[in-house]
């Protein structure tokens, strides 16, 4: 039984008004070191992505769809990092590591919105590379600014829908006892572990929709890049091959890291494995 189910069985029906974020609390002697390391990573993330956005949107030579998508990707990275990291940094320095119930709802909702939107944005970027390399004669007429904006709007629409489903799926459950989250932010699996009800259906909903928003974009990405690799293999020019591969290599690495961590955290059907591993993968 989960801690929430144990609380319900014992007759504790006190509504939870806040949660205690216990992420990395097992390392009290390393709090300052972890604060410095996470602060450095966060600062590099924000400054690097802001610089990328400023460069892309001010340089007239970087107005192609590829760079436009890259600018939006930088914006998404800043957004979902900023949903979680400031609170994490504060918790390294204070003894009260609580977050209000409402704050937890908002944090989870915004986090899921931006992570899901990034998943679909990466698929859009793969489709852009497919059009540029495999259909170069039609690229300019298809990948217009309107098409790019439509793909970005669709990414956020999927993000909003998934966020509403996942957040509603979690907080429709009662929380009536333990409130100590074994994580450094409000995430779905640790919250389900505290719910004072049977969470089997909620876990199925989590896995199904996490798989959908992961595997559908991944299918688009894999299909696009398979066709891209076939097209590159047919190129006679060595310089052309190198240029095509160079525009795809870093994108493919980012995709591998992003989807690898998402699948490890949300899609594989396990309950609660090693909490420390989950926190490290989330970082």
TrEMBL record:
<keyword id="KW-0807">Transducer</keyword>
<dbReference type="GO" id="GO:0005886">
    <property type="term" value="C:plasma membrane"/>
</dbReference>
<keyword id="KW-0675">Receptor</keyword>
<feature type="transmembrane region" description="Helical">
    <location>
        <begin position="33"/>
        <end position="55"/>
    </location>
</feature>
<dbReference type="InterPro" id="IPR000276">
    <property type="entry name" value="GPCR_Rhodpsn"/>
</dbReference>
<keyword id="KW-0297">G-protein coupled receptor</keyword>
<dbReference type="Pfam" id="PF13853">
    <property type="entry name" value="7tm_4"/>
</dbReference>
<feature type="transmembrane region" description="Helical">
    <location>
        <begin position="244"/>
        <end position="267"/>
    </location>
</feature>
<dbReference type="InterPro" id="IPR017452">
    <property type="entry name" value="GPCR_Rhodpsn_7TM"/>
</dbReference>
<protein>
    <recommendedName>
        <fullName>Olfactory receptor</fullName>
    </recommendedName>
</protein>
<keyword id="KW-1133">Transmembrane helix</keyword>
<feature type="transmembrane region" description="Helical">
    <location>
        <begin position="148"/>
        <end position="165"/>
    </location>
</feature>
<comment type="similarity">
    <text>Belongs to the G-protein coupled receptor 1 family.</text>
</comment>
<dbReference type="InterPro" id="IPR000725">
    <property type="entry name" value="Olfact_rcpt"/>
</dbReference>
<keyword id="KW-0812">Transmembrane</keyword>
<dbReference type="GO" id="GO:0004984">
    <property type="term" value="F:olfactory receptor activity"/>
</dbReference>
<feature type="domain" description="G-protein coupled receptors family 1 profile">
    <location>
        <begin position="48"/>
        <end position="283"/>
    </location>
</feature>
<feature type="transmembrane region" description="Helical">
    <location>
        <begin position="67"/>
        <end position="85"/>
    </location>
</feature>
<feature type="transmembrane region" description="Helical">
    <location>
        <begin position="105"/>
        <end position="127"/>
    </location>
</feature>
<keyword id="KW-0552">Olfaction</keyword>
<keyword id="KW-0472">Membrane</keyword>
<dbReference type="GO" id="GO:0004930">
    <property type="term" value="F:G protein-coupled receptor activity"/>
</dbReference>
<keyword id="KW-1003">Cell membrane</keyword>
<keyword id="KW-0716">Sensory transduction</keyword>
<feature type="transmembrane region" description="Helical">
    <location>
        <begin position="204"/>
        <end position="232"/>
    </location>
</feature>
């Amino acid at each position: 039984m989960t801690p929430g189910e144990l609380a319900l069985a014992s007759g504790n029906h006190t509504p939870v008004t806040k949660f205690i974020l216990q992420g990395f609390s097992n390392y009290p002697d390393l709090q300052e070191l972890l604060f410095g390391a996470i602060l450095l990573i966060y600062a590099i993330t924000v400054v690097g992505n802001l610089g990328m956005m400023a460069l892309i949107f001010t340089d007239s030579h970087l107005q192609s769809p590829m760079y436009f998508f890259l600018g939006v990707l930088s914006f998404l990275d800043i957004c979902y990092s900023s949903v979680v990291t400031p609170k994490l940094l504060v918790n390294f320095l204070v003894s009260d590591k609580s977050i209000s119930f409402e704050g937890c709802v908002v944090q989870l909702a915004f986090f899921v919105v931006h992570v899901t939107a990034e998943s679909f944005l990466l698929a859009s970027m793969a489709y852009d590379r497919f059009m540029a390399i495999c259909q170069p004669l039609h690229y300019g007429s298809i990948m217009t600014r309107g098409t790019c904006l439509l793909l970005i709007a669709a990414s956020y629409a999927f993000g909003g829908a998934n966020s509403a489903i996942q957040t509603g799926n979690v907080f429709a459950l009662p929380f009536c006892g333990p409130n100590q989250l074994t994580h450094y932010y409000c995430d779905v699996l640790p919250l389900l572990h505290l719910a004072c009800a049977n969470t089997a259906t909620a876990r199925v909903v989590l896995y199904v929709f996490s798989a959908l928003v992961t595997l559908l974009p991944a299918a688009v990405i894999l299909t696009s890049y398979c066709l891209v690799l076939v097209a590159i293999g047919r190129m006679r020019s060595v310089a052309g091959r190198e240029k095509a591969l160079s525009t795809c290599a870093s994108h493919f690495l980012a995709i591998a890291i992003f989807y690898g961590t998402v699948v490890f955290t949300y899609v594989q059907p396990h309950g609660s494995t090693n909490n420390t591993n989950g926190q490290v993968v989330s970082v």
